[in-house]
Design goal:
alpha/beta; TIM Barrel
């Protein structure tokens, strides 16, 4: 079976998150998006773990019915932790008891493990990876390329970060400012699985699963997910879905105060200090160029395609020339979801020509499917800006179901 999964989000117990990051809302919004398997996030937080325990658990996943339909949304235990070097790690945990073991192990090294869903721990990457191994959890660098709190922000290699545990790292998370074409220029990542997750702090569908993965699995449980990430017994990633990397807010090197963009050469000449007095933050594109083993990406045979998407509400807003937070956008979005079942179906798979919505919206979705997109790159903490072409004759990106 094919399973859409977003494996990195946060709960209402993390800093700077929506109070609606609760289990019922996450379940209903995941259904609207077209996601079957969702991370819990923050599973080391005692209050959040207590809420998770109220769900029905079966083989390492937790499920909750979507409204009164009997359709289940599945949750898998995950957490993100920040190590002593400010690097963030994503852990995918097999059971409540193992989450509790990790909590007990990390608590003496953390001042905020009881107050913040994403705790800081005074351990390095190797020590955290050893704890994950002991708990039977999977671990990898979260948003590996971003210039803040990422592995490649502070380390030049997996072994620099994870030491002798590097051989047990099976995945990296790409983050919003990178895709497969970036990461597959780095030779040491050739054998790893790439994950594309949302890192959502809000439950709504322009944030939740704005990046996600599709896996080939026989059923939805922890062991099947583990095999899919490790690529065993025919289980595997089928594709990654996410932003155009230029859309990410740290794609190019830019000032974090005025957002002026700089080339790497200009940044070095200016000693990473903008003319306005702000700091120039090195972009993902420049960091990848520093780390790259190849001028062009070399995709290994196991690497699935990467499909670029934009949240449906943003497509509708661009087509109509209005803000996303308007009744006009919400009305069309509701119509399309009610008709086609989920946002993924609308954006990728359904025949929307006779949907009955504004023709400008239909044309914009077709333009997105065809890859007729112009991206003004982000940088310095400011997201990139997307422009969609008008409908024309073109060859669309492959459907999710072509893979």
């Amino acid at each position: 079976m094919l399973v859409n999964a977003d494996l990195h989000i946060h709960s209402k117990y993390s800093m700077a998150t929506s109070p609606k990051m609760d289990l019922p809302t996450l379940a209903s919004e995941s259904r609207k998006k077209g996601i079957q398997l969702v991370a819990t996030g923050d599973c080391l937080h005692p209050k959040w773990l207590a809420e998770i325990k109220n769900l029905k658990e079966e083989n390492g996943v937790f499920k909750t019915p979507y409204l009164n339909t009997g359709t289940d949304t599945y949750f898998v235990l995950t957490t993100e932790v920040e190590d002593i070097n400010q690097v963030h790690h994503l852990l995918i945990v097999p059971s409540v008891s193992k989450a509790e073991e990790l909590y007990e192990f990390m608590k003496p090294y953390s001042k905020d493990i009881d107050s913040d869903g994403r705790p800081n721990v005074r351990l390095n990457g190797e020590e955290i990876a050893q704890a994950a191994k002991d708990a039977g959890a999977l671990i990898g660098p979260a948003h590996a390329f971003t210039p803040w709190t990422a592995m490649y922000a502070y380390h030049d290699s997996l072994s620099d970060c994870y030491g002798d545990m590097a051989s047990l790292i099976y995945f990296i998370e790409l983050g919003l400012s990178a895709d497969t074409s970036y990461a597959d220029r780095i030779a040491e990542l050739r054998c790893l699985t790439f994950l594309s997750n949302s890192d959502a702090h809000s439950p709504y569908v322009n944030k939740l699963a704005r990046e996600f993965n599709r896996f080939e699995m026989e059923e939805i449980n922890f062991d099947e997910l583990r095999m899919a990430i490790i690529r065993e017994k025919g289980r595997k990633p089928v594709f990654n879905v996410g932003f155009y990397p230029e859309e990410g807010k740290y794609n190019e090197s830019a000032c974090i105060r005025c957002f002026r963009h700089y080339t790497l050469k200009e940044s070095i000449i200016k000693s990473w200090s903008c003319s306005c007095g702000g700091t120039i933050k090195k972009g993902v594109k420049d960091r990848v160029n520093e780390l790259a083993s190849y001028d062009e990406p070399k995709h290994p045979a196991h690497r699935p395609p990467y499909l670029h998407l934009i949240p449906l509400s943003e497509v509708i807003a661009m087509a109509l020339g209005i803000n996303t937070n308007t009744k006009g956008v919400q009305g069309i979005w509701n119509t399309l979801i009610e008709h086609y079942g989920s946002e993924v179906n609308v954006l990728v798979d359904a025949d929307i020509k006779n949907s009955g919505v504004d023709e400008r919206v239909v044309n914009a979705i077709i333009a997105l499917r065809c890859g007729k997109v112009k991206v003004h790159p982000g940088g310095g903490g400011q997201y990139g800006r997307i422009e969609l072409a008008q409908k024309n004759n073109c060859e669309p990106q492959k459907s999710l179901f072509d893979f």
